[in-house]
# Entry
Amino acid sequence: MGILGGIILIVVILVVIVLIFIGLYNSIVSLRNRVDNAWSQIDVQLRKRFDLIPNLVETVKGYAAHERETLEKVIEARQLGMNASSVKDQAQADNMISGTLKSLFAVTENYPNLKADAHFTKLMEELQGIESNIAFARQFYNDMVMQFNTRVQTFPGNIFAGMFNFKIKDYFLVEESAAREPVKVQFTQQQ
# Structure
């Protein structure tokens, strides 16, 4: 196998190593982009919820004006969510929104006319759909984060992660035990 054969073998090995490195790098970038896309899907659903909350509060306000503290907490939680700048901040805001919405729903139980209001019923149905979409988007995001984190924490991806400053991503976690339960939307017919 002479010198030329040895050089060709070394070049082939180097090309294979470079192609493996390029593939690993591209797979990490691809996963990072999937995580970012999954986060944007959560953001879309959260924005829908944020847009719906003022209408819901205004409707409740018409029937339950003296429940001001509960309504103010809902609006405050919405504002916190809109101003969240990280996954952890957004998760905290989501926990707060879920809790305040549960308080709001508890208040509505005391107002049969409100529960019978067609506009309120429509808003509640929209909210229920959005909550389902948020739960699905959160699960998808966390799945993508798991794949990304696994790639940047295992060999040889961890070498590239360090070289190219890829950082692990945060999961979208529900921290409060009350917030772990789905928002309960219940309609009853008044006669």
